[in-house]
Each structure stands twice: as C-alpha cells, then as structure tokens.
C-alpha cells in the first residue's frame, strides 16, 4: 500500500478523523502491542498497523507468518472496521532512537495523526536504554514532525490485577508478573511451546510457531540460553517459588537456569496466571456470599470439617489447661461415652461440682390465677419474656399454663376471648429439692414437660441448658446472629 | 377480604442454620448462650431438619450424651414441617395443634424464608379471638 492509497482508505473510504500508527518489527504480535492498540482506539478513530516486512534473519519469525499473525489478531480481537494493516517494505536500520523518528515520519506520511512509540522502539540490543526512543522526540517542537507521538510504558501482564498493565497503572511487584518480551516469545516458540495465553493470543502463537526457524545446531533448541528467556519472560521464577508465591531466600542466577527451569516457569504461568485472581475472588466470595448454592459443595464441606476439628482441638487445649481440682463442665473428647451416668455424661461436670438443680431454679416467674383470662396470662408472659406462666394459689405453685398450649387450643377452636386459665392449665410436676440435674433431665424427658417445680421455684428447659452448656461460648460466634422477633424478647 | 395475618408476615426472617455435620455440643452452646429455642439444619441450602431445646433435653441429655459424639444430623427432627408463607394464622395454629409442633419452617415457592414459632402465633391471639363471633348463649324457647 502506498501513502496515497492509505490516505484514500483511511479518510475517504473509512471516514476517519484521526488515526494512530504502529510499526512492528521482527517479533510476533503480543498482548503488549494489543494493550497499546486498545488504548489508542479509545483516543482515535482508526488504527494503522505497519509491520516491517523486509526483516529476515534466522532467529526472527519469517515475515509472511508475522504479517499473517497480525492479521489474525486484527480479525479475531479488534473491531474490523477500525483497524487497517499495511505491510512496510522496510527492514531494520539499526539506527536506534533516530529510527524511531523515521518511523514516526513514515506513519505521518501514511496518514496517521498519532504515532505510537513503545518501550525500546527500534532498539539495538542493549545499546540504548529502554526509553531513549521516546526521549528523542523531546528534541522537537510540538507539531514540528506533523504527528503526535503517544508514548507507552513497558507493558506486562499482572496476574494479581488479571490484566495487562504498566508501572504507571499496577501496584504489584514482579512476583506476579509475566513480562511481555518479543524476543522471549520467539524463544519459547522456537523450543516448540506456545507462550502463556496472557502474553500472546493462541491464534497468533499458532501461526507464529510455524514461522520460527528451529535451531539445528546443538544446544537446548533455542538461540538464547534458557536463563535469558526466563529472565525476559518469567522473572518471577528467579525471585519467587511460584507465580505470586513467596520469595526465595536468594534469587536464582539466570546463568544457572536450564531448559527444565524454563519448562517449570512455563507450566507455572500457564496453570496459574489466571488462578491467582480467581482464588482471591473465591476467598472473598466464601466470606461474603450469603447464598451458598453456587459454592463448590466439596469446598464448603471441607471448611465445615476444618471448623469441627478446630473446635475439637480447642477443647483439648481448654481441658488440659483446667485448674487442678476443677472439673470441666464437659468431659474431654475421647472419654468414655454412652447412655447413663459416666465420665462422658454432659451432666458429669455439674454433678462433680456438686451443683444442685435447685440452685438454678428461680422464683422470678409470671404468676396467674385459675380464674384469670388466658389472654391476660398471655400478656403477662410477653411482658416477662417467658413462654409459660405459673398458676399460683395462696402463694403456692399449683399448675402451669404454657403459651404453646394456648396456640394449640386456638387451633382446635377451643380458645376464645373469655377462656380462663383453669380451662387450659395443667398440673405442674414437683421434684424433690435434692434432685440433681440428671433427675430433672430424666423427669422432663419421661413426662414430656418443659418446666419443673422445686421448692416453689421453677426450673425450665432453657435454664437447664444454660446451666450445662454456657460455660464455653467459643462456638457461639461461629453462628450467624439470631435476633428474636420484636416483642418476643430474648426468648 | 380476610384481615387475618399470613404466616409470611409474622414469622422471623432471621434464623440460624447449621449443617448436619455440626456437632451437637456447638449447637447446644449457641442455643443456650443466645436463648435460641431452635435452629434449622440445612443441606445445600435446603432445610432438612430442626433442633429445638426439647431435642437437646430429651435426645441428648436424657440419653447421657455430651453432644461431642453427635452431630446435628443425628438428633434433628426430620423431615422438617413447612408451611407456606401465604397460609393464614388460623390454619397454621390448627396445623400446630394437629402436629403439636411449636416451630415450623416458612417457605415461599419452596425456598426457606423464615421460621415460625408458637410465640409468633400467640402474639396474634388477642386480635384473632376478637374477630371470632361470641360463643352461642342459652337458647330461648320462643313460646309465648
């Protein structure tokens, strides 16, 4: 394509108002290029890609394959009507930063309003620093070259951000990075591997790998040593035990890394580059999501098992740390268990401490008379936050009225506004003052009652449970908060 | 139009759930420590059982267990009895009377949305009984 043809295509046919140009060299297109192209497409109407087609050295990707790979990138990943590709009959001049100025002028002549210059554009080995080809444009006045130069920092892939980024946009350190080096990508292709998808699109790599010239002499299959390739693409491997992993005690010298290390770094990158962020999301989702239906059930199950074991271990520590002479309220795990009294019995603790049931009975309860209306008794229960009221005659407890029985009676059609306590109360079982907690438990279970009377005082099932089980509340915080409905109180 | 409240309007929308693998001792501690009369046992988000304070007394303590050796799945009452959120209070009270259950799981299109206790229904009794017609009085002969 000639410049006049380019002008016609970009402005007359496509109707662009602004166009960004990008000159590529011997390397296959990669996601670093793509990052710059996408930024440019946000700023301008069109993108003109100008691959240098006259570059041929044994270690480069052959030109037809480079151009085809660039076409594949355009066709699969870019908006089709906004990107134009025109191969340049131009090779490397090895002129350093001045070659970058030449490229900018070429882009201008081809109709570009903007020229994209990345890191080490038209670089010559290590002869110039990475951004010399950008600083050269500081020598010119604004507008002097007739094209606006857009400078880009070095682009890499950050596995923690899960995106391509630069030093200007990413806060994470190098252990999370896959560097995007054209030379490194060539070396990976030459060894017969596809680079990680995060730095080179698979469609591009599939074409480019056909265009590498394999090394035919001895060695590991690459032009450059494996350590150099690792250093250019996977520097995390030198400093950390894995991508995003913990730092090594000391960095690995690139000169001592072999092809096996390159394979390991490749495998790590391919397996985990998108797992880092995904795992972070899983952790947060596990903690934050209320609805667990989408969670991996086996993972949820494993966490529950872990929580169970944690409490078992905590109990062992608590038990072993008990003061001498104090019996724990609950026996240690692993003790004899089973029906009946014994060291494994939950009531053993209270028994061993000599606590009697009567010690937990209370004389604070709502009291009603047989002639009272049940609805009045209900109001009294609500006021005292109990689900029962004691029927008292001449100072003695003679019966109990349970709230649930009122509901059952209403369900049977036996409760009206004028129903009296005498219709629905039942006798309250008495138990001896010397009764133990075991006696009370057995009594309640056998008679299916929830309150007992001891010496004109009341012990209900909640009091019983709290007496036995509330010494250790560590497990309670594992549960979500429970709020009783308004008006019902704490019970 | 009936003015009778629906179950979904009066039930508690906040309730505690546990997996069936959770040890009873932990369930008991939480219930006793926080005055929770019951917890719902769920499996993969579906209510499968219920543990009440009565369960702890009769099925754990009375049988001599510590709670360490039992899981929620071992002691829960299953299957859990559910009531649709759109059911009226009277019908629900009748259900409770027939089954003598004090706690029901409230569902809405099959999904657990709340927990209903006898306490919730009991709070409605004054208004519900006020809606009822008075009981029939003594008959008059009608003869002159």
Report on this model:
The complex is a heterodimer of chains A (491) and B (144). With 491 residues, chain A is of the alpha/beta class. Chain A has three domains: 3-152, Rossmann fold (3-Layer(aba) Sandwich), CATH 3.40.50.620; 157-273, no CATH class; 348-469, CBS-domain, CATH 3.10.580. Helices cover 38% and strands 12% of the residues of chain A. Chain A is built from 18 helices and 14 strands. Chain A has helices at residues 3-13, 31-43, 63-77, 97-109, 132-135, 182-190, 202-208, 226-233, 236-239, 259-272, 275-288, 297-320, 348-352, 374-384, 403-411, 421-424, 437-447, 461-469; strands spanning 19-24, 46-51, 83-85, 114-117, 148-151, 156-158, 163-165, 177-179, 367-368, 388-393, 396-402, 426-427, 451-454, 457-460. In chain A, the strands form four sheets. A five-stranded parallel beta sheet of chain A has the order 3-2-1-4-5, sandwiched between helices. Chain A has a four-stranded mixed beta sheet with strand order 9-10-11-12. The termini of chain A are far apart. Residues 319-344 and 472-491 of chain A have low confidence and may be disordered. With 144 residues, chain B is α/β, with parallel strands linked by helices. Chain B is built from six helices and six strands; from the N terminus they run αβαββααβαββα. In chain B, β5 (103-108) and β6 form a beta hairpin. In chain B, α5 (89-99) packs across α6. The longest helix of chain B is centred in the C-terminal third of the chain and has 14 residues, at 118-131. The radius of gyration of chain B is 19 Å and the shape is elongated. The chains are: A alpha/beta (491), B alpha/beta (144). Chains A and B meet through α12, α14, α15, α17 and α18 of A and β1, α2, α3, α5 and α6 of B.
Features:
heterodimer, A: 491 residues, alpha/beta, Rossmann fold, CBS-domain, four-stranded mixed β-sheet, elongated, B: 144 residues, three-stranded mixed β-sheet, 6 helices, 22% strand, disordered C terminus
């Amino acid at each position: 394509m000639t410049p006049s043809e380019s002008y016609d295509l970009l402005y007359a046919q496509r109707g662009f108002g602004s166009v960004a140009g990008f000159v590529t060299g011997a390397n296959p297109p990669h996601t670093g290029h793509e990052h710059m192209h996408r930024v440019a497409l946000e700023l301008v109407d069109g993108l003109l890609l100008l691959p240098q087609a006259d570059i041929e050295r044994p270690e480069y990707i052959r030109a037809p394959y480079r151009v085809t790979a660039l076409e594949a990138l355009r066709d699969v990943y870019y908006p089709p009507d906004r990107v134009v590709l025109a191969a340049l009959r131009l090779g490397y001049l090895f002129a350093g930063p001045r070659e970058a100025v030449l490229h900018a002028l070429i882009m201008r002549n081809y109709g570009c309003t903007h020229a994209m210059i990345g890191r080490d554009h038209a670089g010559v080995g290590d002869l110039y620093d990475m951004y010399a080809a950008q600083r050269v444009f500081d020598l010119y006045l604004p507008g002097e070259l007739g094209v606006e130069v857009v400078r880009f920092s070095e682009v890499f892939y950050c596995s923690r951000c899960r995106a391509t980024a630069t030093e200007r946009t990413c806060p994470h350190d190098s252990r999370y990075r896959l560097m995007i080096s054209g030379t490194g990508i060539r070396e990976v292709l030459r060894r017969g591997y596809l680079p990680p998808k995060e730095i080179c699109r698979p469609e591009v790599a599939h074409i480019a790998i056909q265009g590498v010239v394999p090394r035919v002499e001895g060695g590991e299959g690459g032009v450059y040593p494996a350590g150099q390739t690792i250093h250019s693409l996977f520097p995390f491997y030198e400093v950390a035990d894995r991508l995003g992993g913990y730092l090594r005690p000391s960095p690995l010298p690139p000169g001592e890394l072999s092809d096996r290390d390159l394979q390991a770094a490749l495998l790590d990158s391919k397996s985990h580059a998108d797992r880092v962020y995904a795992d972070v999301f899983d952790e947060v989702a596990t903690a934050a999501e209320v609805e667990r239906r989408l969670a991996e059930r086996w993972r949820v199950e494993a966490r529950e098992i872990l929580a169970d074991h944690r409490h078992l271990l905590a109990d062992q520590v608590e038990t072993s740390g008990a003061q001498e002479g104090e019996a724990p309220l609950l026996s240690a795990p692993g003790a004899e268990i089973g029906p009946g009294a014994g060291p494994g019995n939950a009531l053993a603790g209270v028994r061993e401490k000599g606590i009697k049931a009567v010690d937990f009975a209370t004389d604070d309860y709502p009291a009603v008379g047989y002639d009272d209306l049940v609805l009045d008794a209900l109001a009294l229960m609500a006021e005292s936050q109990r689900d029962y009221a004691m029927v008292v005659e001449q100072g003695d407890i003679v019966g109990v009225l349970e709230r649930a029985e009122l509901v059952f009676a209403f369900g049977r059609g036996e409760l009206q506004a004028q129903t009296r306590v005498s219709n629905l109360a039942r006798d309250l079982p008495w138990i001896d003052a010397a009764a133990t907690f075991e006696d009370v438990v057995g009594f309640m279970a056998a008679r299916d009652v929830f309150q007992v009377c001891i010496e004109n005082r009341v012990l209900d099932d909640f009091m019983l449970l709290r007496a036995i089980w509330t010494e250790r509340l560590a497990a309670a915080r594992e549960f979500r908060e429970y709020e009783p409905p308004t008006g019902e109180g704490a019970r | 139009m009936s003015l009778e409240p629906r179950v979904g309007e009066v039930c508690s929308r906040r309730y505690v759930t546990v997996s069936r693998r959770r040890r009873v001792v932990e369930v008991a501690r939480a219930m006793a420590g926080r005055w929770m009369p019951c917890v719902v046992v769920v499996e993969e988000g579906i209510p499968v059982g219920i543990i009440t304070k009565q369960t702890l007394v009769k099925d754990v303590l009375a049988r001599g267990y510590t709670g360490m050796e039992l899981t929620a799945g071992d002691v829960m009452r299953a299957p859990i009895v559910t009531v649709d959120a759109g059911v009226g209070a009277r019908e629900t009270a009748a259900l409770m009377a027939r089954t003598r259950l004090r706690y029901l799981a409230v569902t809405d299109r099959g999904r657990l949305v709340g927990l209903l206790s006898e306490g919730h229904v009991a709070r409605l009794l004054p208004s519900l009984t006020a809606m009822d017609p008075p009981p029939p009085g003594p008959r008059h002969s009608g003869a002159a």
